[in-house]
Amino acid sequence: MAWxxxxxxxxxxxxxxxxxxxxxxxxGVDLCVGAIEGGALGSLPCGLLTPDEVRAQVSAVRERVRGxxxxxxxxxxMPEGGDEAPWKALLRPYYDEFGVAPGPPxxxxxxxxxxxxxxxxxVRPEVVSFHFGLPSEELLRRVKASGxxxxxxxxxxxxxxxxxxxxxxxVIAQGFEAGGHSGRFLGSDPAAALGLIALLPQVVDSVxxxxxxxxxxxxxxxxxxxxxLGASAVQxxxxxxxxPESLIRPEHRAVxxxxxxxxxxxxxxxxxxxxxxxxxxxxxxxRAEVPPYPLAAAALAPLKNVSGFTPMWAGQSAPLxxxxxAAELTRSLAADALAVLGRLS
Amino acid sequence: MAWxxxxxxxxxxxxxxxxxxxxxxxxGVDLCVGAIEGGALGSLPCGLLTPDEVRAQVSAVRERVRGxxxxxxxxxxMPEGGDEAPWKALLRPYYDEFGVAPGPPxxxxxxxxxxxxxxxxxVRPEVVSFHFGLPSEELLRRVKASGxxxxxxxxxxxxxxxxxxxxxxxVIAQGFEAGGHSGRFLGSDPAAALGLIALLPQVVDSVxxxxxxxxxxxxxxxxxxxxxLGASAVQxxxxxxxxPESLIRPEHRAVxxxxxxxxxxxxxxxxxxxxxxxxxxxxxxxRAEVPPYPLAAAALAPLKNVSGFTPMWAGQSAPLxxxxxAAELTRSLAADALAVLGRLS
Lengths: 345, 345
Prior knowledge:
Oligomer: homodimer
Radius of gyration of chain A: 19 Å
Strand content of chain A: 5-15%
Helix content of chain A: 25-40%
Strand order of the largest sheet of chain A: 1-9-8-6-5-4-3-2
Shape of chain A: globular
Number of helices of chain A: 14
CATH architecture of the largest domain in chain A: Alpha-Beta Barrel
Order of helices and strands of chain A: HEHEHEHHEHEHEEHEHEHHEEHHH
Distance between the termini of chain A: 13 Å
Number of domains of chain A: 2
Structural class of chain A: alpha/beta
CATH superfamily of the largest domain in chain A: Aldolase class I
Number of strands of chain A: 11
CATH class of the largest domain in chain A: Alpha Beta
Largest sheet of chain A: 8 strands, parallel
């Protein structure tokens, strides 16, 4: 049995064409190590880390396993600080209920910057992936000069062409089924978000670089389907949330089997898919009062350890997942996909 | 080359595991005949027809081609006539702009009833499919006693189990990518609508009858992907809209390549996917003022020939379509799918 498309394998040098999705807040050293041990491209989500933390986590992975590492960064433009009053007014009953006060804002998701680029040049990851577009031309040039394969994330064929024109080596086609933040960055209408089965062939037809399918792929059948649609690899996040190495809380782990995920802007200001929590049920998933990404998170910080007020990101195939260690899950997913592919012709 | 799953072929007796979707308003005798000539299951949308019209259309198809026919009916519950005033107030500026007056309501989509059931018993279609659930136990019993294979439409695993428990012979898994009306009937949250790549394996795991994949399948790659996910057949609507036999207006045909489809409740009161029109752009796609399905259509009737005020239903793979005659399209889709499947292992 062989993979029907080897473009990603040849580009990155992994054993299997699977990317363990970064997942800020849920991924980390243990999950990355397990995915690499299983033959996948392991990822470290760096969007919430300091440069020193990135250096330390890469060292920790390198000490435990050999294989390509992907560092993932955000590339959003930080908005002007807007009017937080309407959002805090919506949250006021919860501050009162739980006896907390809106304090000084905690750390926010920050975009990739020259300091972080210096760490990339120092630790030399095999792959760097970006969410919400790409960094400046100068920073992107430095990342490429470091030797890293660069991957961008597209939610439309237009975004895929934009990324390819700026020199990425591969494009993720992120279907609307994906858990966590949609990487949408060119202003397409969220109401027109594309499902993976429609998005993927349109992206494959739009670019010449290898395409990595993401969103709603839950098991070997989904991986095989992605290859049928023209993908060279798949990126799985939610499947890895079930692993004991993921950093999610027990409440989050328990809710994965229930499905019913939806997009909400309440937790960060950006649209992200997750299980409906009390906050989402009370206010409705999308509210105009919420400040733009990533500012909304600040006013929620005092409630971050309260059940129902912390996001529980998950994609639409969460009910298909199995609680296996990441290395075993990776090998099992690859074997299942090859078995499905073998039965198709 | 052989199809990797023959359960639908064995059940229905077609040459290829493709269902030409009914598409009320766009399908008809010519499209049905072409699809059957190409080896697919041809469908006649009957939800807007009188019993006499159904009889006449079935005769017209039978005179021109041999092969299984699917008659499609709606099974919604007609709502009480609600307050139309807020909806007519929203439309008032358009009545004024185009010099029309809200008149008596035109014909509305009607659910399957005893008179229509009598026609089924008379014309004996090989297949009957239902949208928005199923008819009463008594009517369903009569349809099955006529010898028809019965197909139901599910948008969630729960709906699929509900349909199987009531005796359907096959289930359509309708992904949110599908054009036209979502068949959602058990009250699931529209914000949690599932993309096909997530829905299909969850439905396949939930029922023992063959599953027909629908939504966002645009070409041979999508058909192959559906088989990888466990489907026994596919139902394609938008791909057939491009055919010269479809009854859509030139304006609708021209907009298919643009994509950007979204769900709107403005045209019927029910959520349906189509290209954004002026009405959708002006009012926003989903408005609370709109009466429940199918009542909203009545107030729009005076504007039905005005560009921008008539729905242009289409699914998310509309840009992948090709303007081939239906028989040739069917043969080409099947050959392409088999070629993709052959390259996968």
